[in-house]
Structure formats: structure tokens, C-alpha cells
């Protein structure tokens, strides 16, 4: 039987947990509890197998990504991005043709490379990634230029429509038409020159004569001059 002193010494040295019931070998030394997480041989073997499996999976993913990351794929992605761009820009077409030449050059270099040179393929992969990033930057720049050009044309069309609408409104107003002709005075009506007419306050007063004769007065003379002669 283990004495309480032995169990207390074991707990103080952290050889056994305080709440664990362990079978100790009295007289020959302390016994150890075989629990999960104590680093047994089986656990170490399983841990090594897991690390090896993870390394193999990482290597497979790297090899798989390297094989698919070719210049043909980059050119295909370039063609897909081209579909979303507007057509008709000569400068953008020249840039695209230049980018295609660069992509075809790297495509030929990838076809002629030796598949056994693993270290060389790593450097080629990094170069291809740099070229792909450069191609994507060029495409983004082209799209931005196209978008700015489209917005500028829309703004010009909007201003032209506003000017046309303003001209139509001005042409439909008779007052503005007379001002454009150089005279803002309204045309006199046919009945302005009558005897009993309320004259405008702003119109200058004309000195009138009184002739007690319906034939020789001023109105009769004006009437004869206007309609008889």
C-alpha cells in the first residue's frame, strides 16, 4: 500500500495529477500514469505520420499549381478580360498585341524548358507571376482609360442636350426673338389710333387740338390718309 506521504511527494513533483488514482509500486519507486497527451510511442508515431501527410499534400498542391500556371492559361485569361473592354481604341489594341507577344514568348520558353529542373521551374514560376501581375495592371489601366473616355463623352452629350433645349426655349419665346432682332418694342395694334382709347400711362402725351368740325379735325384727317389715299 502507498502511504499518504508518498502520494503527497508525487503530487508535489507533478508526476501524477492531484485528482488521479494511480497504482504506485511501493518500495521500488514511483509509478507513472499512462494518459492521452503524455507523448507515448504510439502518439509520436501518429504525429510523424500526420506531419508527413501534410508535407505530401503541400507538395502536391504546389506541383499542381505550377503545372497549371502556364503562359497559355495567362493568354486565355487575357482574352477573357478583353471581352469586357470596349472596342475601338487603337492604343489599347497596340498594347494588347504587345502583351500577346510577351505571353507567346514566355509560352515558347515554358514549352522548351526541361521538366526535371525543379529549381529552375521555381524561378520561372516567380517570373511568370510577375509577368501576369504586369499584364493585369495593364488591363486595369486600359479599362480605366476606357471608362474615363466614356464618362467624358457622356458629359459632352449632356451639355450639348442642355444647350439645345435652352435654344429651343428661347426661340419659342416671342419676347426673346424680338430682342434678338434688335428691338424690344411691341408692334402697335390696329385700333391704337382711335378716339376713345385708354392710353398707356408710360406713353408720352401728345398735344391735342380741339376742332369743332367732324370733317376737319385731326382724327378725320388721319383716317382719310390711312384708308382713303
Automatic annotation (TrEMBL):
InterPro entries noted in UniProt: Cwf_Cwc_15
One of the protein's GO biological processes: mRNA cis splicing, via spliceosome
Keyword Coiled coil: yes
Keyword Coiled coil: yes
GO molecular function list: RNA binding
Gene Ontology cellular-component terms listed: catalytic step 2 spliceosome
Residue ranges of coiled coil: 46-88
Name by which UniProt lists this protein: Cwf15/Cwc15 cell cycle control protein
Bias (Basic and acidic residues) ranges: 134-169, 189-203
